[in-house]
Amino acid sequence: MTQKAVIMDDKAMQRAVARISYEIIERNKGVGNLCIVGIMRRGVNLAQRIAAKIEEVEGKKIPLGILDITPHRDDRETAPDYQDRTDLPFEVAFKKIVLVDDVVYTGRSVRAAIDALMEKGRPQSIQFAVLVDRGHRELPIRADFIGKNVPTSSEEQVVVRVREIDGEDQVAILEGESR
Question: What is the CA radius of gyration of the chain?
């Protein structure tokens, strides 16, 4: 795979996270009863950034959780020694949950996340925030909060790098098979 283009650098990612954070506050008329849940792996880092920005703006710490969707995926087998890494340090029932992921493509990961979340309780609402929406949905799912819409072909791959895991913040398009 070769890198075709960098579509977001660290500054663009910071601006997108800030914009998403403000939109979450506006749409929910504040932060009462709000919880942020990051979908493993890079969605967790983005969720942490969104929660920190909301706390900076509103002066209130937002409950933050981690959601492991592995056993709910319909495209991969779960390993026999699988250990669930979900960490939701709050009750899901009757909360406004904002699911956060790095890229939305077919919608299957989000569907798995909704299934995983619903196993934990029935939230008041589920909203979806994503850094990059690349289109090509296979399921009727849309993001409520989008950092950047990037039309891509199915032969391209959108790769999000976050400093906590990859040592840099960047979103790039690679040429080759999509994942």
Answer: 16
